[in-house]
Specification:
465 residues; 5% strand; mainly alpha; two-stranded parallel ribbon; Preselin/SPP; three-stranded antiparallel sheet
Length: 465
């Protein structure tokens, strides 16, 4: 009897040991596949600066939540090759990636139309002054493109020197950031407050229009401002102050959006020649500092500068005067980039440099102004005749905007395929500039757009737009 019980117990123990070994082997297999998946994600990103010395597109994973790792374990019956081949497709549908596609395009469109509206308002004021006899009538008023003292138009020399100036600024921040971070933080906060006020101004004007007049309020030596301008500036200063105290990424994004819109609206490219020189120079600048800077400086200068955090001015003042209130003040990530956190993956976010929005945005602003200019010429040539239907069809602005989207898409896919930092302008410049040059050549506008596109000349009535 005892021998029977002993043999039964031995067989039971052997069965349990065999089951435990099988489960341990399966767990090790799943853990190895999960580890490979997480490392592939962490090595993924796009970096590039544009003209501001900021980072381009970059992916980050911080503090992976251990409670989420269970959902990342895949079925062992699915091959790792099949899983990896589809992984980049799932990454494109992440909320941070979708934001990286949509928000920059919206900022470019909004900034371009703000610039066009400013130009048209300047021309309208100029016509009103001519009617009142305050200004002499000139036949070449269109050549000025509505320029005024607030708008900066880049010339050929400035376009060539801009990448060089951006490189010098990048090196200054790389070597002297720790000793000059207080100056960087204060200057950034002041400039961002002014740019954010410009971004918020139309909303304030729309809200306050029914209850206020357009009379300006004098502030002494500061000038005269409308109530909407004062309210928008007050809101922007409040947002910047809250950002200094909290360092929240959403407020930093709002400041970055204001900088993008203001730069696109107030800086203009006069011709396709200047646009091509500027974007080509910035492409070389971007590729060099992302791909080759590590060979010279033993570090990726672009990424290092973009990811540096500055000491909070509140904390520095508190330490200087031995105050206890500055102990919990966070460090500040300067608004040279837009951050898009993921809603699906905790701790994951995408990052896009402001230069990758502003510099292609200047080109799109130029072609939008040219589309409107051609429309004006055609309407004046065919006065009283309704415009042809092809006016509402594919324009230069549509062509460049679609090219910009595909440039962002290609940059994202490249980062997923190569698992390495990619300069965003390497893809954005060819996808926006080459289709535009091709379309201008096919329509016969290339020579005019290349040199002096906004000088009034007599055009044929069958002008193609």
């Amino acid at each position: 009897m005892s021998s029977h019980i002993h043999s039964l117990a031995s067989s039971t123990i052997n069965t349990i040991q065999t089951f435990v070994q099988n489960q341990q082997q399966q767990l090790n297999s799943n853990h190895h596949l999960l580890h490979h998946h997480l490392i592939s994600d962490n090595n993924n990103g796009i970096s590039g600066g544009g003209g501001t010395g900021g980072v381009g597109m970059h992916n980050h994973h911080h503090h992976m939540n251990p409670h989420l790792t269970h959902h990342n374990v895949v079925d062992p019956n699915i091959s790792s090759t099949e899983f990896q081949s589809n992984q980049w497709m799932y990454t494109l549908m992440d909320s941070s990636r979708v934001s990286t596609f949509l928000i920059p395009m919206l900022l470019i469109v909004y900034g371009s139309f703000r610039s066009l509206n400013m130009e048209q308002e300047a021309k309208q004021k100029e016509k009103e002054r001519e009617k009142d006899g305050l200004l002499p009538s000139t036949s070449s008023s269109s050549s000025s493109s509505g320029d005024n003292n607030n708008v900066q138009t880049l010339d050929t020399m400035q376009a060539l020197c801009l990448p060089l100036g951006a490189s010098i600024s990048l090196l200054v921040m790389f070597f002297f950031f720790d000793s000059m971070q207080m100056l960087f933080a204060i200057c950034t906060a002041i400039i961002a407050a002014i740019a954010l006020a410009f971004l918020l101004l139309p909303m304030c004007q729309y809200i306050m229009k029914p209850c206020t007049e357009k009379k300006k309020i004098s502030l002494g030596i500061c000038g005269r401002f409308t109530p909407a301008e004062l309210v928008s500036f007050s809101l922007s200063v409040t947002i910047v102050c809250i950002w200094v105290l909290t360092g929240h990424w959403l407020l930093m994004d709002a400041m970055g959006m204001g900088l993008c819109v203001a730069f696109i609206a107030f800086v203009r490219l006069p011709s396709l020649k200047v646009s091509t020189l500027l974007l080509t120079g910035l492409l070389i600048y971007d590729v060099f500092w992302v791909f080759f800077s590590s060979y010279i400086f033993s570090s990726n200068v672009m990424v290092r500068v973009a990811t540096k955090t500055a000491e909070n001015p509140v904390g520095i003042v508190s330490k200087r005067f031995h105050l206890n209130g500055g102990k919990d003040v966070p460090k500040l990530s300067l608004p040279g980039k837009l951050i898009f956190p993921s809603l699906q993956n905790s701790g994951h976010f995408s990052m896009l440099g402001l230069g990758d929005i502003v510099m292609p945005g200047l080109l799109l602003c130029f072609v939008l102004r040219y589309d409107a200019y051609k429309r004006t010429l055609l309407n004046s040539a065919d006065a009283g005749v309704p415009p042809p239907k092809h006016l509402n069809r594919f324009t230069y602005f549509h062509c460049s905007l679609i090219g910009y989207f595909f440039g962002l898409l290609t940059a994202t896919v490249s980062s997923e395929v190569f698992k390495a930092a990619q300069p965003a302008l390497l893809y954005l410049v060819p996808f926006t500039l080459l289709p535009l040059l091709t379309m201008a050549y096919l329509k016969g506008d290339l020579r005019r757009m290349w040199s002096e596109p906004f000088i009034t000349t007599s055009l044929p009535k069958n002008l193609d737009v």
